[in-house]
Amino acid sequence: xxxxxxxxxxxxxxxxxxxxxxxxxxxxxxxxxxxxxxxxxxxxxxxxxxxxxxxxxxxxxxxxxxxxxxxxxxxxxxxxxxxxxxxxxxxxxxxxxxxxxxxxxxxxxxxxxxxxxxxxxxxxxxxxxxxxxxxxxxxxxxxxxxxxxxxxxxxxxxxxxxxxxxxxxxxxxxxxxxxxxxxxxxxxxxxxxxxxxxxxxxxxxxxxxxxxxxxxxxxxxxxxxxxxxxxxxxxxxxxxxxxxxxxxxxxxxxxxxxxxxxxxxxxxxxxxxxxxxxxxxxxxxxxxxxxxxxxxxxxxxxxxxxxxxxxxxxxxxxxxxxxxxxxxxxxxxxxxxxxxxxxxxxxxxxxxxxxxxxxxxxxxxxxxxxxxxxxxxxxxxxxxxxxxxxxxxxxxxxxxxxxxxxxxxxxxxxxxxxxxxxxxxxxxxxxxxxxxxxxxxxxxxxxxxxxxxxxxxxxxxxxxxxxxxxxxxxxxxxxxxxxxxxxxxxxxxxxxxxxxxxxxxx
Length: 506
Fold this sequence. Notes:
By secondary structure, this protein is an alpha/beta fold. It is 29% helix and 27% strand. The chain has two domains: 16-396, ANL, N-terminal domain (Rossmann fold, 3-Layer(aba) Sandwich); 420-504, ANL, C-terminal domain (GMP Synthetase, Chain A, domain 3). It is built from 15 helices and 27 strands.
């Protein structure tokens, strides 16, 4: 499953931040080129070039050192999408500290686990100030004066040194901190070459949140490392805005999730003029959840362009994809990219002979995480016999194309976010009136799916109880985790083995 025309080159000494931005500061053309466009809810644009970014990252890195942030310290980032987010992230890793990008949607009780697990020394935030003060955390300013010139921010880091932690939901309901090394950006180089197929003149737009590796990695850092321009969206989810931004900034590559493509298809069907507004785009990419064949074919019919799916996970990012210059099989997520070694295994971790099994990747893959932070049991569960087990079940055809079957765990994809049903159910089940609950998926049509929470009560249903359940959900779960519908049932449907049946058949 490996093509021989790509080999990773991983130096011993390496710093993700310096490799991403510093390479361009003296480049005659790219240093003056726009690195990031930041667009708000009103489609107003801020921008910064590569030279300005290099200067601000260096200054902020010196500021962090002045605030006693040292190599190995964890620093939590809780910011909305912005130029400041990227500068703070790159400044943290520039000095060998460990960045922890987090979602601004998370509530205090959700942040509690992340803070207790990672023990960050400081936080960069513009919200929940009193909460972080009560946690005893140092609050870092986004505005810094020029630091003393004798402070050297060029701290030596190795390619295997810890760089950043992203938290993702797990089957136990507790998030897991995925720890990546500085080399992770080198591990994504096949994705940059063969999936994004980047060009220097590309303007890349991924409207997702920067705490997500899809947006932060493929949609931003990988593009900056290549010298392309990046569009960051800080507004509320709005596909009409996405179309406006594409037209105004002449976006050449659009990355999003299947749910957004479904919504854009509806906008196109409602107004055919929207197709012309997308004329600048020459590549459409999708990840975050499985891209159904119906969406690919509908998009091709409307725009005369295919959507190329990539598949990865927080632990290893995008290592499988369809390629814009290769044969596309709608419904398949493509092949393992050149440079990555992977194959399907059975329950004994042996390579399967019947073309269906769990996808495993060799443990020494440079794009693979170091470990789950402070969670040896979960780490040991994923690494077996020099392999990393993805938890994804696939079929493989004779040409090497992979076809997604299911996940071993029960995570649900909601517009690209991974949601643990147990986490949602635990919140609702904590109410004494609730006997049992189950987060399920309901297909509306070929282009839309929603989450539905089934609730079985111990008492007679009433408006008061429904209000209590909704209040509990609102106070304890981020918006993307909240079910779209709440249904009272007399019994939760389960299989013969006692597993909840998650799919609601219409």
